[in-house]
Amino acid sequence: QVQLVESGGGSVQSGESLRLSCAASGFLFNDYAIGWFRQAPGKEREGVSCISSSGRSDTNPYYADSVKGRFTISTNNAKNTVYLQMNSLKPEDTGVYYCAVDDDNSGRRMCISTNRGSYFWGQGTQVTVSS
Predict the structure, then answer these.
(1) pLDDT tens profile 51-72
(2) Which segments of the chain have a pLDDT < 70?
(3) Could you give the CA distance from residue 62 to residue 73 in angstroms, rounded to a whole number?
(4) Residues 79, 82, 85, 90: what is their CA dihedral angle, to the nearest 10 degrees?
(5) H/E element holding 16?
(6) What span, in angstroms and rounded, lies between the C-alpha atoms of 5 and 92?
(7) What is the bridge-based pairing of β-strands 33-39 and 46-52?
(8) Beta bridge pairs of residue 126
(9) Whole-angstrom Cα distance, residue 63 to residue 40?
(10) Cis before residue 91, ω within 30 degrees of 0?
(11) Whole-angstrom distance, CA of residue 48 vs CA of residue 67
(12) In 3-state terms, the chain is what percent helix, strand and coil (to 5)?
């Protein structure tokens, strides 16, 4: 079975950095897309950054416009772990961050699609950024 465990969240001030980790098991990164989503109170869950092992370079990895230039997604395939380096954090980055996987080959499609019934989700990790 697929299992995802996030870690690395916390409370920071504006301008500081955090690195989130997602330890995965039960699947091979070569066969799945994996990404980070976040949800703030009263808002829908949004795709932050998603990556697949294959796909067009202009769509993979995908970053939401609000985090481009500040966040970086990376993977360690040997450890089946995905990371999200978050720099220059802003209060609007506050929310619960979730790791997810899907049997897709497009990071962009995974992040922007609203049809997420097939996704596997982690438990989430809280990120709070104060001004």
Answers:
(1) 987 765 667 899 999 999 999 9
(2) 55-58
(3) 9
(4) -150
(5) none
(6) 24
(7) antiparallel
(8) 96
(9) 18
(10) no
(11) 7
(12) 10, 45, 40
